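**Folding the chain**
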Amino acid sequence: MKDSTKSVRETIDPTTGAIVTPIYQTSAFLYPEGERYRYSREVNPTVLELARKIAELEEAEAGLAFSSGMGAISTSLLTLLRPGSKLLIHVDMFGRSVRFARDYLTSWGIKVDVAPADNDVMLEMVKQKYDVVFVESITNPTLRVIDIESIGKVCRDLGSTLIVDSTFATPINQKPTMFGASLVVHSASKFIAGHNDVITGLIAGKEEIVRPIDQMRRTLGTSLDPHPAFLTIRGMKTLKIRMDVINSNAMKVAEFLENHKKVRKVYYPGLKSHETHNVAKRVLKGYGGVVSFEVKGNSESALKVMKSTKVITPAQSLGGVNSLISHPATMSHRTLSPEERKASGISDSLLRLSVGIEDVEDLIEDLDRALSSI
């Protein structure tokens, strides 16, 4: 089946024949009839259906749902790493991911190395053999496309576990398991749920890896409530058609911004000017819905542009049907030091735009009007 079919299909309820997965809003289940489920923190039928669907979309053996994307990341890393283990991350990834690795995992006795924002250097570092290599397929917010094809081959040869945060790519634009990833992570609050109304994390990967992570999830309590699971399943049904529109809109917006006199630089892997465009053509089916750009000016100029949009909403999240714009230096990456932001390529004049499904001409007119304010 194709992705659009997988996104829509649900398991038919065997008891009632319901064609939509019900919200099993219960903490416990009748024993012994409910022996499979027992307690919703451990297993819930609505949440289990969401886990099944992400595994199917990612063409993986098993899936799991969590209370947030960071819950999925922290639970997975705490399961796979032990004191003395070696972990490789890269500097230009989501700020909280970097913080968790640097601030917590190092204090727990994990050796954490941080690769620079350079694909070639990172590939050489991977060859030193790590227990876990954790990357974002498209980095946040400068949209460097990681060469997971090359990294995946090295990890397979050396026996390293490759984890790919594929939030920006989605299963529509890339399936990391096809490139050797053992585990795929999503902040499903973003493109997968798609409506900026839910907080959810998902993983999909090899059964032998997912199973112990599931046990850690039950212990840590990073479990998902059935209601957001239901909303995520509902949002997932339109994932393919949303991403088709979003990919198209983002490309047109990026091309417009690249030619705007008030814009210094545009970051979008679909543009030939992007440093990893050639990698993107090889490992992505679509270039995604996030466009980052530097305005000509300073932090105040960028904030003025962000606050001047009318169609596009200033907000920290991304991946919804409605377009959002944010200032990474003071929002998503505010926990990083100025030196860390500089190493990640995040300038004070950088804005991150999450392109939605609005009419693209309305988005372009809104951006043009906002940019004229500086």
